[in-house]
Structure formats: C-alpha cells, structure tokens
Here is the input.
Amino acid sequence: MAFNFLFGWFSNDIGVDLGTANSLVYLKGKGIVLDEPSVVAVEKGTNNVLAVGLEAKRMVGRTPGNIVAIRPLRDGVIADFVITEEMLRYFMSRVYRRGGFFAPRVVIAIPSGITAVEKRAVEDSARQAGAREVYLVEEPMAATIGAGLAVQEPRGNLIVDIGGGTTEVAVISLGGIVLSKTVRIAGDEMDEAIVQHLKRTYNLMVGERTAEEVKITIGSAFSLDEETTMEVKGRDLVAGLPKTLTISSQEIREAMNETINAIVETVKLTLEQTPPELSADLVDRGIVIAGGGALLRGLDRLLNEETGLPVHIAENPLNTVVMGTGKILDEIDILKKVAISVD
Here is the structure.
C-alpha cells in the first residue's frame, strides 16, 4: 500500500490528445501542460529532427530545400511511424522535466474508426517514447467525459468531435459507445476547399496556413447577421507574382459548403440509426459539439436547423478530448471500463 501511494505521488501519469492538427498533453495533478501543432521539421532524406511543434509549424511552406516540415498524422492516424515516435518523445520529455521518478502511465485518445494495426502503431510509438503503460481510449468517449456528460448513466449522449483530420459522431450510454461514425472529413478539408476556391476563382495560390487563417477569421457554416471581408495574400498563377485580393465570408462559406454538408449528413445518418429509447433522450439532451470545428461560426445553428435538436458547444472545444483523458486518469474505475483492446 505504501509503495502504491509513493508510486502515485511520484509518477507523471499523462493524457494525450494526439491530433492531426494539434497535440495536447494533460499531466495528472497539473492540468494541460502542452498544446502544440502536430508538426515536425526534419532534414530532407533523413529522420534528423530539427524542430517540433510550434517552431516546426512556423516553417511550413517556408523551408529551404534541405528542410521538410511534416505532419506525421493524417486523417487522424499515423502516416509516419518514425516521426510520430520522435514527436511523442519530444512532447513527453517536455513533461518529464516537471519532475517524477517513474515512467508515466499514458492514456491516448484515438479515432474510433482506426484499424488494429493503426492502434498498435500508436501504442508502440508511446512505449518507444518512454511510457510505462499505454491505454487507448476512443476520442468520442474522451470528448464526452471531457465535456462533463454523465457517460455511466443509462441515457443517451450524442457527441460530434470535429478535429483537423476526422469528424467523430457517437452515441454514448452506460459507459460505452452504442453507435459511432467516423469520416475523414474535418478542418483540413475545409482549408483545402478554400485553397481550391481561390485557385479556381482568382488564379491565386495560397498555402494551408493562409487558408486556415481565412477559415478562422471569416469562415462560417450559416448565414451571418453581418457578412465580412478580409484581404488575402498569395501568388498569382498567371503572372507568377505576389498578389493581394479581398474575399467575402459568403464566398468562403459557399466554398466550404460541400465539406460542412458531409459532416451534417454524418450526424443525420447516426441519428437515423440510433435506438428509439436513446433517440428519446436526445430530444431533451441534444447534441454536443467539440474539437476545433465546433468554433466555426454558425455550425450549431446549422445542425439545429437540420436535426431539430438543441445543439450545445462544449465549454472549451479545443481541450475537450485531452480534459477527458485527464478525468479518466483520475478515476481508475472509468479507465478500466473505457480503455480499448489493441488486438
């Protein structure tokens, strides 16, 4: 008993939201201690890591020929095993410096639709990065817990978690996922839709960082009370020279329309397949949206109009999943119930 007490005292147990766009780390007893882009800069042709996180993201689209900025996670899964391991090791070493004598127990949130091979890759990366024990939790479950919903009760909860690479829609009751849908359509596809719109309409080439800035600044999913505009800088594809133009929030909304509709249709399909008793619960409890996509203006209004259900935005959408992993770490009984097998 004394050993277990000391082990819990000195161990740096951590929760990780390993996202396509951003990775967040929760340290037990401290809260969120790290929030950085899931980007790694490496020397071209090697796995020699030059920068990780925010420093590496600043290099995206601006690197010389011998440096490559890589996003090792694509569509919510590991696209580059070696670089993901390096990124995890870097993030975890940042946390270690805060003290602790034992290797940490790690809870990692993963998309519910990934394969057993992909789950194994995540677990192996964490172990190679220094974890003592690794537990995998499906992102919708972590998001529901992080949003403060009572997942253990025999009542239905519908969570829509819109990240960078995937959108997760799940109905949760009695501590388990009753029904879930995962589509690899989310924030990245919205950015790409903006890139393609500017290219087709204005012969203007912009990078993903600029497209994301446009989405955040004037993007919306529903008509705004007051439409806005912003200046965008890029390269004219005809003249090959730098160019600045003004675009409107209305045209950006139309550019993202197909991507947003795909997310809405996934929510509606999930509702159509939800058992009747749980559907009845959702009439009162409604839908909770989390992830970076939840911050898109008017998305809650659009979902309300399309489903007829009340829609609530999680208190801190960007942090919902990692806060869920933290709560899971704090309650071992919940961990045993929600952790999933790799095999």
About this structure: Residues 249-272 form the longest helix (24 residues). Residues 152 and 203 are 53 Å apart (CA to CA). DSSP finds twelve helices and 18 strands in the chain.
